[in-house]
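Hey, I was hoping to borrow your eyes for a little while. I've been staring at a protein lately and its backbone has me curious. You're getting the sequence in one-letter code plus the fold written as tokens. Would you mind checking whether the tokens look sensible for this chain? Here's the protein in full, and shout if anything looks odd to you:
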Amino acid sequence: MSEQWRTVEDINAARRQREDAIAGYEPPAAFSLGRLVADRVEFAYVNVGIGLLPAVIVAGVCGHVSGSAAYRLTVGQFDAALAELAPAEACTDLPHPNLWSWRALRAGMSGEDQLIAVYADDLGADSPDPHVAALLAAAAGR
């Protein structure tokens, strides 16, 4: 890993750069990435008002711009997001629960696992999408 973000300022700069690269991007109120198990999602880590860098990194690989939505990810997209987030670990002033939980998720994956990224723009809204509804329920439980 050649690039490393050693400070909070470095991480914020990386986040702003990625946000600026997606025209119209709006940070979510809640975000998570997880594995689909039967008809439900097992979220790796639920971000509510935090985790804005991981959210925009995944947005860059799945095409999310704004609003509430769920996106299936390929293993290749997940691996790309993991690699892109890895430089954040050099900053020891912050914990990195997304990176750590994503690595654990990746290590435990089988070849048949399906991944999903879920964004919610309003914590008080209902959603007809069952994955967004699951994220909203998980966010409410935090």
About this structure: DSSP finds five helices and five strands in the chain. The CA atoms of residues 46 and 138 lie 7 Å apart. Residues 8-21 form the longest helix (14 residues). The mean pLDDT is 95.
